[in-house]
Amino acid sequence: SIRNATAAYAYNMMTYYANNQTSTPAEKIGNLPAPYYWWEAGAMWGGLVDYWAYTKDSSYVNTTLQALVANFGPNADLMVPAHRGDEGNDDQAFWAIALMSAVEYGFPSPPQSQPQYLNVAKAAFDSMAARWDLTSCNGGLKWQIFPENAYGYNYKNSISNGGLFALAARLARYTGNQTYVDWAEKTWDWCERIGLISSMYEIFDGTDDNQNCTQIDHLQWTYGVGIFLHGAATLYNYTNGSSLWQKRTSGLLDRSAVFFSPYPNATDVMYEAACETVGTCDTDQQSFKAYLGRFLAKTAVLAPYTAASIKTLLTKSAAAAATSCSGGKDGVTCGTKWYTGAWDSTSGVGQQLSALEVTQALLVANAGAPETQANVHLAQPAVTTTISLPARSITAELQTSNA
User: Fold this and answer.
1) What is the signed CA dihedral for 196, 201, 203, 207, rounded to 10 degrees?
2) Which residues contact 61 (CB under 8 A, 6 or more apart)?
3) Order of strands, edge to edge, in the sheet holding 216-217?
4) Distances (CA, A) of 176 to 173, 179, 239, 301, 365
5) Continuous H helices in 88-134
6) Residue 297 near residue 312, CB atoms below 8 Å
7) Angle at which helices 117-130 and 89-105 pack, to 10 degrees?
């Protein structure tokens, strides 16, 4: 039944994609139509790589492979499309993260005459690390890559730096190269020092480098805590269960509680706390829950002591999402609000991807542990403890986090 649901969600999502026709310009292949930006296309293909790994359904393998290869930039560097639009470091990170999933799960590769996933992911990391900006705030990545993108160029946000952190962690685990570990630690330490990671493991949105990062935007988003959580769990696994990365993994998982249980009758159901209940989520934000669902599932595999609690969150959220995916002519169009018990009349790539990710996450064990470069699975750390999310007041936490 889970496979049937994910197949329906994926099929509906792919109705939004039309850029694989013979008349499509080369630079448009793999991209979604307006109003979707380049990053969300990369995120969607990453979700479909996982879909294949978890369900063994090969329906979208050729399309996904074509999309990934089409977005390989010059010199096998996954930079940005030729049109150089509003893409930023976070956009590049989402494409590179999709490639790492392809590497870790053995997704069908391009011909050897073309750049390979791992090399492109490494090149993407190198280009991001080269943009580490010491001209303000003593480091950090800017949101935007190009100065002409004034909106966001002077903003150092958690998702860009979280993307660098998570990509470094995954490359470290896969390759065993200490340089990636060093970069992951460097990025975490900077985020913590600036205040993007709080002492309670809250992940705040970003900070203005025109003010030398002295002021923090305290909005929290699902994908922010999700990307740091997966990176921390990856390093916990790579270090064979170090106490430092266990503490950080546990802290982030605990703080993710702010994105569950919006109402007393919706216990453990995921929602986007900053915008969803008031109906202000934009097109990008409609997809953010997808990545928390994705990264929770991967965390459960890499840090097994979290699995029981994560399974509860994913199961409750997937069941609620199913009630939302009941709209449209096909009867499987997904909405935004999973806690209403019905379709809320919204639709889009983000809604479909979010439902797909949180549902297919229940099948994550089918893919096994992500592989390493030696083509063997790392030994799983011993289950030394369990995490249970404490009773909490979501309202109080939101008031605190938005102060």
Assistant:
1) -10
2) 52, 107, 108
3) 155-157, 206-208, 216-217
4) 6, 9, 11, 19, 23
5) 89-105, 117-130
6) no
7) 150
| Distance of alpha carbon 71 from alpha carbon 230, whole angstroms | 24
The burial of 66, by beta-carbon neighbours within 10 Å (0-12 exposed, 13-18 middle, 19 or more buried), is given as middle
Other residues' Cβ atoms within 10 Å of the Cβ of residue 220: 24
3-state class of 322 per DSSP?
A: helix
| Closest-CA residue to 53 (of 284, 381, 371, 384) | 371
The total number of residues written for the chain in this structure: 403
Which among 133, 240, 125, 257 has a CA at the least distance from the CA of 201?
Answer: 257
Joined tokens for residue 383:
């289950």
Which two tokens mark 71? 């977005």
- The one-letter amino acid at 92: Q
Give, as one character, the DSSP assignment of residue 378: P
Question: Does the global pTM surpass 0.70?
Answer: yes
Q: Identify whether the C-beta of residue 103 lies closer than 8 Å to the C-beta of residue 174.
A: yes
SS3 of residue 337 by DSSP = coil
Q: What is the DSSP string of 161-182?
A: HHHHHHHHHHHHHHH--HHHHH
pLDDT tens-digit map of 348-402: 999 999 999 999 999 999 999 999 997 544 434 444 434 443 333 333 333 333 3
Residue position matching structure tokens 């509906």: 12
- Cα–Cα distance measured from residue 350 to residue 289, given in angstroms and rounded to the nearest whole number: 9
Chain centroid to CA 379: 25
E strand segments, 322-382: none
Nearest partner of 295 among 346, 361, 207, judged by Cα = 361
Place of tokens 């792919």: 14
pLDDT at 141 over 80: yes
